[in-house]
What we know:
The chain contains three helices and four strands; from the N terminus they run αββααββ. It has 154 residues and is of the alpha+beta class. It has a single domain, classed as 2-Layer Sandwich (Translation Initiation Factor IF3), CATH 3.30.110. The chain has a four-stranded mixed beta sheet.
Amino acid sequence: MLxxxxxxxxxxLLLLVGYVVGQMLEKRHYASIRQRERQxxxxxxxxxxxxxxxxxxxxxxxxxxxxxVSSDYFKTFVAGFRNLFGGRFKGYESLLDRARREALLxxxxxxxxxxxxxxxxxxxxxxxxxxxxxxSMEVMAYGTALLPMATAGS
Length: 154
């Protein structure tokens, strides 16, 4: 009986706990992302190399935002089965989506702190980090923040 508990019930219980906790943390992170996206909607981030027509700035600075988001053990466990059969894995897609959106939000927060409301040339760099058996995604967003013109007195 003890063998049954140790070999089957305990791992199943740990997977269930991992699933529940992972879902709660993911939902909380998405709620935070949506709230901050609403707060920063006036900071425009464009992928274009040049400012829009009519926008000029002699002052600019590099802004960036980076994040590492890790998967939970349940998604990693299920991904092992997905590797056998192939196909889309929504758990990792949401991991990448959260990482990308979080990196862009951090870029916008940095632009806002520097007094900018427009970032051009936004690019993403991604890397997969695998360690201790739990995959993680690193995403870095960077771009050029156009700053307001300096006044004569400053």
